[in-house]
Design brief:
Elements: E1 2-7, E2 16-21, H1 68-78, H2 83-101, H3 111-123, H4 128-148, H5 174-187, H6 189-201, H7 205-210, E3 216-217, E4 222-225, E5 228-231, E6 236-239, E7 247-250, H8 253-273, H9 296-309, H10 318-330, H11 335-342, H12 347-353, H13 355-370
Antiparallel strand pairs: 1-2, 3-4, 4-7, 5-6
Length: about 375
Protein backbone atom coordinates (compact mmCIF):
# COMPACT_ATOMS: atom_id res chain seq x y z
CA UNK A 1 0.00 0.00 0.00
CA UNK A 2 1.37 3.36 -1.01
CA UNK A 3 0.78 6.61 0.84
CA UNK A 4 2.22 9.76 2.30
CA UNK A 5 2.31 11.78 5.51
CA UNK A 6 2.85 15.48 5.94
CA UNK A 7 2.56 18.03 8.77
CA UNK A 8 -0.52 20.31 8.87
CA UNK A 9 0.33 23.27 11.16
CA UNK A 10 -2.71 25.09 9.79
CA UNK A 11 -4.87 22.61 11.74
CA UNK A 12 -3.05 22.87 15.03
CA UNK A 13 0.23 21.84 16.67
CA UNK A 14 1.45 18.24 16.27
CA UNK A 15 -1.09 17.65 13.52
CA UNK A 16 -0.28 15.47 10.52
CA UNK A 17 -2.18 14.32 7.44
CA UNK A 18 -1.95 10.69 6.40
CA UNK A 19 -2.94 9.64 2.88
CA UNK A 20 -3.23 6.00 1.77
CA UNK A 21 -3.83 4.64 -1.76
CA UNK A 22 -6.38 1.84 -1.39
CA UNK A 23 -6.79 1.32 -5.11
CA UNK A 24 -10.06 1.11 -7.06
CA UNK A 25 -11.25 -2.21 -5.61
CA UNK A 26 -13.53 -1.76 -2.57
CA UNK A 27 -11.89 -2.86 0.68
CA UNK A 28 -13.18 -6.10 2.22
CA UNK A 29 -15.29 -5.97 5.29
CA UNK A 30 -13.30 -5.17 8.39
CA UNK A 31 -10.32 -3.69 6.52
CA UNK A 32 -8.65 -0.80 8.26
CA UNK A 33 -9.21 2.69 6.93
CA UNK A 34 -6.79 5.58 7.07
CA UNK A 35 -7.23 7.45 10.32
CA UNK A 36 -8.16 11.10 10.44
CA UNK A 37 -5.34 13.52 11.28
CA UNK A 38 -4.61 13.54 15.00
CA UNK A 39 -6.04 16.63 16.70
CA UNK A 40 -7.85 17.87 13.53
CA UNK A 41 -11.33 19.34 14.00
CA UNK A 42 -14.17 17.41 12.44
CA UNK A 43 -14.90 18.57 8.91
CA UNK A 44 -18.38 20.08 8.46
CA UNK A 45 -20.81 17.99 6.43
CA UNK A 46 -20.73 18.84 2.72
CA UNK A 47 -23.94 20.60 1.72
CA UNK A 48 -26.03 19.08 -1.03
CA UNK A 49 -26.27 21.05 -4.25
CA UNK A 50 -29.44 23.13 -4.18
CA UNK A 51 -32.08 22.24 -6.71
CA UNK A 52 -33.59 24.87 -8.94
CA UNK A 53 -37.12 24.04 -7.74
CA UNK A 54 -38.99 21.40 -5.77
CA UNK A 55 -39.20 18.11 -7.64
CA UNK A 56 -41.66 15.22 -7.46
CA UNK A 57 -38.85 13.01 -6.14
CA UNK A 58 -35.08 12.76 -6.19
CA UNK A 59 -34.94 10.14 -8.90
CA UNK A 60 -34.11 10.86 -12.52
CA UNK A 61 -34.21 9.35 -16.02
CA UNK A 62 -36.04 6.03 -16.16
CA UNK A 63 -37.27 6.14 -12.58
CA UNK A 64 -38.62 9.68 -12.38
CA UNK A 65 -42.30 10.16 -11.72
CA UNK A 66 -42.27 13.73 -13.10
CA UNK A 67 -44.97 14.31 -15.69
CA UNK A 68 -44.82 16.22 -18.94
CA UNK A 69 -47.35 18.73 -17.60
CA UNK A 70 -45.14 19.38 -14.56
CA UNK A 71 -42.17 19.98 -16.85
CA UNK A 72 -44.06 22.46 -19.04
CA UNK A 73 -44.98 24.55 -16.00
CA UNK A 74 -41.47 24.46 -14.53
CA UNK A 75 -39.84 25.27 -17.86
CA UNK A 76 -42.13 28.21 -18.56
CA UNK A 77 -41.38 29.63 -15.10
CA UNK A 78 -37.65 29.19 -15.70
CA UNK A 79 -37.33 30.36 -19.33
CA UNK A 80 -36.22 33.93 -20.06
CA UNK A 81 -39.04 35.05 -22.35
CA UNK A 82 -40.87 38.29 -22.97
CA UNK A 83 -44.25 38.73 -21.22
CA UNK A 84 -46.05 38.51 -24.55
CA UNK A 85 -44.31 35.23 -25.41
CA UNK A 86 -45.07 33.81 -21.96
CA UNK A 87 -48.78 34.59 -22.41
CA UNK A 88 -48.81 32.98 -25.83
CA UNK A 89 -46.94 29.88 -24.68
CA UNK A 90 -49.18 29.57 -21.62
CA UNK A 91 -52.21 29.55 -23.90
CA UNK A 92 -50.71 26.77 -26.05
CA UNK A 93 -49.82 24.74 -22.96
CA UNK A 94 -53.17 25.11 -21.22
CA UNK A 95 -55.32 24.58 -24.32
CA UNK A 96 -53.34 22.09 -26.41
CA UNK A 97 -50.41 20.40 -24.73
CA UNK A 98 -51.36 19.83 -21.08
CA UNK A 99 -54.83 18.37 -21.76
CA UNK A 100 -53.39 15.90 -24.26
CA UNK A 101 -50.09 14.81 -22.68
CA UNK A 102 -49.87 16.52 -19.31
CA UNK A 103 -50.32 13.30 -17.31
CA UNK A 104 -47.76 11.29 -19.27
CA UNK A 105 -44.62 10.60 -17.24
CA UNK A 106 -41.44 11.97 -18.79
CA UNK A 107 -39.84 8.51 -18.76
CA UNK A 108 -42.79 7.18 -20.80
CA UNK A 109 -43.02 10.01 -23.34
CA UNK A 110 -42.10 9.00 -26.90
CA UNK A 111 -41.88 10.60 -30.32
CA UNK A 112 -45.01 8.62 -31.23
CA UNK A 113 -46.97 10.49 -28.53
CA UNK A 114 -45.91 13.77 -30.13
CA UNK A 115 -46.59 12.72 -33.72
CA UNK A 116 -50.08 11.53 -32.79
CA UNK A 117 -50.71 14.83 -31.01
CA UNK A 118 -49.59 16.84 -34.04
CA UNK A 119 -51.87 14.78 -36.28
CA UNK A 120 -54.85 15.37 -33.98
CA UNK A 121 -54.19 19.11 -33.86
CA UNK A 122 -54.02 19.23 -37.64
CA UNK A 123 -57.25 17.24 -37.93
CA UNK A 124 -58.92 19.75 -35.61
CA UNK A 125 -58.18 22.47 -38.15
CA UNK A 126 -55.11 24.10 -36.62
CA UNK A 127 -52.77 25.71 -39.10
CA UNK A 128 -49.45 24.02 -39.68
CA UNK A 129 -47.67 27.06 -38.27
CA UNK A 130 -49.65 26.70 -35.04
CA UNK A 131 -48.84 23.00 -34.76
CA UNK A 132 -45.17 23.78 -35.32
CA UNK A 133 -45.36 26.39 -32.59
CA UNK A 134 -46.62 23.69 -30.21
CA UNK A 135 -43.73 21.49 -31.32
CA UNK A 136 -41.27 24.31 -30.63
CA UNK A 137 -42.56 24.58 -27.06
CA UNK A 138 -42.28 20.82 -26.55
CA UNK A 139 -38.76 20.69 -27.99
CA UNK A 140 -37.50 23.56 -25.83
CA UNK A 141 -39.10 22.19 -22.66
CA UNK A 142 -37.66 18.71 -23.20
CA UNK A 143 -34.30 20.25 -24.02
CA UNK A 144 -34.30 21.89 -20.60
CA UNK A 145 -35.38 18.61 -18.99
CA UNK A 146 -32.34 16.99 -20.58
CA UNK A 147 -30.10 19.63 -18.98
CA UNK A 148 -31.80 19.17 -15.61
CA UNK A 149 -31.34 15.40 -15.80
CA UNK A 150 -34.99 14.33 -15.97
CA UNK A 151 -34.63 12.65 -19.37
CA UNK A 152 -31.70 11.05 -21.13
CA UNK A 153 -32.74 12.23 -24.59
CA UNK A 154 -35.01 14.81 -26.21
CA UNK A 155 -37.69 12.78 -27.98
CA UNK A 156 -39.02 15.93 -29.69
CA UNK A 157 -35.96 15.88 -31.95
CA UNK A 158 -37.18 12.54 -33.28
CA UNK A 159 -40.77 13.71 -33.86
CA UNK A 160 -42.13 14.82 -37.24
CA UNK A 161 -44.06 18.12 -37.04
CA UNK A 162 -45.82 19.19 -40.23
CA UNK A 163 -43.76 21.13 -42.74
CA UNK A 164 -44.79 24.68 -43.47
CA UNK A 165 -46.33 25.22 -46.86
CA UNK A 166 -45.44 28.33 -48.81
CA UNK A 167 -49.00 29.60 -48.92
CA UNK A 168 -49.05 30.06 -45.13
CA UNK A 169 -47.25 33.41 -45.46
CA UNK A 170 -50.23 35.60 -46.31
CA UNK A 171 -49.34 38.71 -48.30
CA UNK A 172 -52.08 41.26 -49.08
CA UNK A 173 -52.18 42.79 -52.55
CA UNK A 174 -50.72 46.25 -53.11
CA UNK A 175 -54.13 47.89 -53.85
CA UNK A 176 -55.47 46.52 -50.54
CA UNK A 177 -52.48 47.90 -48.62
CA UNK A 178 -52.87 51.27 -50.34
CA UNK A 179 -56.57 51.38 -49.42
CA UNK A 180 -55.79 50.56 -45.78
CA UNK A 181 -53.14 53.29 -45.57
CA UNK A 182 -55.47 55.83 -47.18
CA UNK A 183 -58.33 54.96 -44.80
CA UNK A 184 -56.02 55.25 -41.78
CA UNK A 185 -54.75 58.67 -42.92
CA UNK A 186 -58.31 59.86 -43.42
CA UNK A 187 -59.24 58.71 -39.91
CA UNK A 188 -56.30 60.41 -38.15
CA UNK A 189 -52.98 61.77 -39.42
CA UNK A 190 -50.87 60.22 -36.67
CA UNK A 191 -52.61 56.86 -37.00
CA UNK A 192 -52.26 56.97 -40.77
CA UNK A 193 -48.53 57.66 -40.40
CA UNK A 194 -48.12 54.63 -38.12
CA UNK A 195 -49.82 52.36 -40.66
CA UNK A 196 -47.81 53.87 -43.51
CA UNK A 197 -44.55 53.40 -41.59
CA UNK A 198 -45.44 49.77 -40.87
CA UNK A 199 -45.96 49.14 -44.59
CA UNK A 200 -42.90 51.06 -45.79
CA UNK A 201 -40.40 49.74 -43.23
CA UNK A 202 -41.80 46.34 -42.23
CA UNK A 203 -41.46 47.28 -38.55
CA UNK A 204 -43.05 44.96 -36.02
CA UNK A 205 -45.90 46.17 -33.84
CA UNK A 206 -43.75 46.24 -30.68
CA UNK A 207 -41.09 48.23 -32.55
CA UNK A 208 -43.61 50.83 -33.70
CA UNK A 209 -44.93 51.23 -30.17
CA UNK A 210 -41.40 51.58 -28.78
CA UNK A 211 -40.14 54.15 -31.29
CA UNK A 212 -39.08 57.47 -29.72
CA UNK A 213 -38.24 60.74 -31.40
CA UNK A 214 -34.61 60.24 -30.49
CA UNK A 215 -34.68 57.17 -32.74
CA UNK A 216 -35.71 59.17 -35.81
CA UNK A 217 -33.10 61.29 -37.65
CA UNK A 218 -35.09 63.47 -40.00
CA UNK A 219 -31.98 65.08 -41.49
CA UNK A 220 -30.47 61.80 -42.69
CA UNK A 221 -33.88 60.10 -43.16
CA UNK A 222 -32.86 57.14 -41.00
CA UNK A 223 -34.78 55.41 -38.21
CA UNK A 224 -33.23 53.20 -35.52
CA UNK A 225 -34.91 50.37 -33.62
CA UNK A 226 -33.42 50.29 -30.13
CA UNK A 227 -36.28 48.98 -28.01
CA UNK A 228 -39.76 47.50 -28.18
CA UNK A 229 -42.90 47.78 -26.06
CA UNK A 230 -44.85 44.64 -25.15
CA UNK A 231 -47.78 43.94 -22.85
CA UNK A 232 -46.84 42.42 -19.49
CA UNK A 233 -49.01 41.42 -16.54
CA UNK A 234 -51.20 44.50 -16.33
CA UNK A 235 -48.45 46.86 -17.50
CA UNK A 236 -46.34 47.73 -20.53
CA UNK A 237 -42.77 46.45 -20.61
CA UNK A 238 -39.88 47.95 -22.58
CA UNK A 239 -37.39 45.37 -23.83
CA UNK A 240 -34.69 44.83 -26.43
CA UNK A 241 -35.63 44.14 -30.07
CA UNK A 242 -36.55 40.59 -31.03
CA UNK A 243 -33.10 39.74 -32.39
CA UNK A 244 -31.44 41.76 -29.58
CA UNK A 245 -29.70 43.87 -32.21
CA UNK A 246 -30.07 47.58 -32.85
CA UNK A 247 -30.85 48.12 -36.53
CA UNK A 248 -31.06 51.18 -38.78
CA UNK A 249 -32.93 51.64 -42.01
CA UNK A 250 -33.70 54.41 -44.48
CA UNK A 251 -37.02 56.23 -44.73
CA UNK A 252 -38.67 57.53 -47.89
CA UNK A 253 -39.20 61.26 -48.49
CA UNK A 254 -42.98 61.22 -47.95
CA UNK A 255 -42.70 59.41 -44.63
CA UNK A 256 -39.91 61.76 -43.49
CA UNK A 257 -41.99 64.83 -44.36
CA UNK A 258 -44.99 63.58 -42.41
CA UNK A 259 -42.83 62.56 -39.46
CA UNK A 260 -41.44 66.12 -39.48
CA UNK A 261 -44.95 67.56 -39.13
CA UNK A 262 -45.77 65.10 -36.35
CA UNK A 263 -42.60 66.06 -34.49
CA UNK A 264 -43.51 69.77 -34.68
CA UNK A 265 -46.82 68.91 -33.02
CA UNK A 266 -44.95 66.92 -30.36
CA UNK A 267 -42.69 69.90 -29.67
CA UNK A 268 -45.73 72.15 -29.14
CA UNK A 269 -47.32 69.66 -26.74
CA UNK A 270 -44.01 69.28 -24.91
CA UNK A 271 -43.66 73.04 -24.42
CA UNK A 272 -47.30 73.59 -23.42
CA UNK A 273 -47.24 70.79 -20.86
CA UNK A 274 -43.86 71.88 -19.45
CA UNK A 275 -42.71 68.28 -19.36
CA UNK A 276 -39.38 67.19 -17.89
CA UNK A 277 -36.69 65.74 -20.08
CA UNK A 278 -36.34 66.24 -23.82
CA UNK A 279 -38.53 65.85 -26.87
CA UNK A 280 -36.29 63.00 -28.01
CA UNK A 281 -37.48 61.00 -24.99
CA UNK A 282 -41.13 61.12 -26.12
CA UNK A 283 -42.77 58.30 -28.01
CA UNK A 284 -43.56 58.98 -31.66
CA UNK A 285 -47.00 57.42 -31.32
CA UNK A 286 -48.75 58.03 -28.05
CA UNK A 287 -52.35 58.28 -26.83
CA UNK A 288 -51.47 61.44 -24.88
CA UNK A 289 -48.56 63.81 -24.49
CA UNK A 290 -45.91 61.37 -25.69
CA UNK A 291 -44.74 60.21 -22.27
CA UNK A 292 -46.37 56.80 -22.68
CA UNK A 293 -46.68 54.60 -25.78
CA UNK A 294 -49.71 53.16 -27.39
CA UNK A 295 -50.67 49.77 -26.02
CA UNK A 296 -49.80 47.10 -28.63
CA UNK A 297 -53.24 45.52 -28.32
CA UNK A 298 -54.87 48.92 -28.92
CA UNK A 299 -52.88 49.25 -32.14
CA UNK A 300 -54.11 45.84 -33.34
CA UNK A 301 -57.74 46.63 -32.46
CA UNK A 302 -57.61 49.96 -34.27
CA UNK A 303 -56.02 48.32 -37.30
CA UNK A 304 -58.85 45.78 -37.43
CA UNK A 305 -61.40 48.60 -37.47
CA UNK A 306 -59.53 50.30 -40.30
CA UNK A 307 -59.42 47.09 -42.34
CA UNK A 308 -63.13 46.46 -41.83
CA UNK A 309 -63.84 49.97 -43.08
CA UNK A 310 -62.23 49.17 -46.46
CA UNK A 311 -63.74 45.70 -46.74
CA UNK A 312 -60.56 43.78 -45.87
CA UNK A 313 -61.28 42.39 -42.39
CA UNK A 314 -58.97 39.40 -42.93
CA UNK A 315 -55.78 41.50 -43.14
CA UNK A 316 -53.62 41.54 -40.01
CA UNK A 317 -51.14 44.22 -39.01
CA UNK A 318 -48.19 41.81 -39.25
CA UNK A 319 -49.10 41.13 -42.88
CA UNK A 320 -47.98 44.66 -43.75
CA UNK A 321 -44.51 43.41 -42.80
CA UNK A 322 -44.89 40.50 -45.23
CA UNK A 323 -46.01 42.92 -47.92
CA UNK A 324 -43.01 45.18 -47.31
CA UNK A 325 -40.58 42.27 -47.68
CA UNK A 326 -42.19 40.86 -50.82
CA UNK A 327 -42.44 44.31 -52.42
CA UNK A 328 -38.72 44.81 -51.87
CA UNK A 329 -37.85 41.34 -53.21
CA UNK A 330 -40.09 41.83 -56.26
CA UNK A 331 -38.29 45.10 -56.93
CA UNK A 332 -34.98 43.25 -57.09
CA UNK A 333 -33.56 44.44 -53.76
CA UNK A 334 -30.81 42.01 -52.62
CA UNK A 335 -31.89 39.53 -49.97
CA UNK A 336 -29.22 40.62 -47.43
CA UNK A 337 -30.45 44.22 -47.69
CA UNK A 338 -34.07 43.19 -47.17
CA UNK A 339 -33.11 40.91 -44.28
CA UNK A 340 -31.18 43.68 -42.54
CA UNK A 341 -33.93 46.21 -43.14
CA UNK A 342 -36.69 44.21 -41.48
CA UNK A 343 -34.51 42.78 -38.72
CA UNK A 344 -34.31 39.11 -39.62
CA UNK A 345 -31.62 37.25 -37.70
CA UNK A 346 -30.06 36.13 -40.99
CA UNK A 347 -30.65 36.08 -44.74
CA UNK A 348 -31.53 32.40 -44.37
CA UNK A 349 -34.68 33.40 -42.47
CA UNK A 350 -35.71 35.69 -45.32
CA UNK A 351 -35.00 33.02 -47.93
CA UNK A 352 -36.86 30.36 -45.97
CA UNK A 353 -39.95 32.50 -45.38
CA UNK A 354 -40.20 34.13 -48.79
CA UNK A 355 -38.59 31.46 -50.99
CA UNK A 356 -41.41 31.63 -53.57
CA UNK A 357 -40.78 35.34 -54.08
CA UNK A 358 -37.05 34.78 -54.46
CA UNK A 359 -37.73 32.11 -57.09
CA UNK A 360 -39.96 34.51 -59.03
CA UNK A 361 -37.24 37.15 -58.94
CA UNK A 362 -34.75 34.52 -60.10
CA UNK A 363 -36.90 33.73 -63.14
CA UNK A 364 -37.23 37.42 -63.93
CA UNK A 365 -33.45 37.76 -63.69
CA UNK A 366 -32.99 34.83 -66.07
CA UNK A 367 -35.32 36.41 -68.62
CA UNK A 368 -33.64 39.80 -68.26
CA UNK A 369 -30.17 38.35 -68.81
CA UNK A 370 -31.34 36.28 -71.77
CA UNK A 371 -32.69 39.41 -73.51
CA UNK A 372 -29.12 40.73 -73.67
CA UNK A 373 -28.11 37.85 -75.93
CA UNK A 374 -29.06 37.01 -79.52
CA UNK A 375 -31.98 34.63 -79.92
Amino acid sequence: MRGSIRPRPDRGPDTFELRADLGRTPSPAGAARSPAPTGAPAAPPRPRSPRWSPTPNDRRHRTTEATFGWLLDRWLDHAELSPTTVRGYRSYIDRRLAPALGQVRLRDLTALHLDELYQRLGAEGLARATVRQCHSIVRRALGQALKWGYVDRNVATMASPPALSRDETVVPDAPVVAAIVEAAETDDEAWGLLVRTAAVTGMRRAELCGLRWGDVDLETAVATVRSTVVAGDGELVTKAPKTRQVRRFALDNVTVARLGLLRLAAVEVFAAAELDGQVDDLYVWSPGDGTRPWHPDSVSHKFKRTCRAVGAPEVKLHELRHWSVTAALDAGIPVPTVSSRVGHSSSAVTLGTYAHRVEESDRQAAALIARQLPT
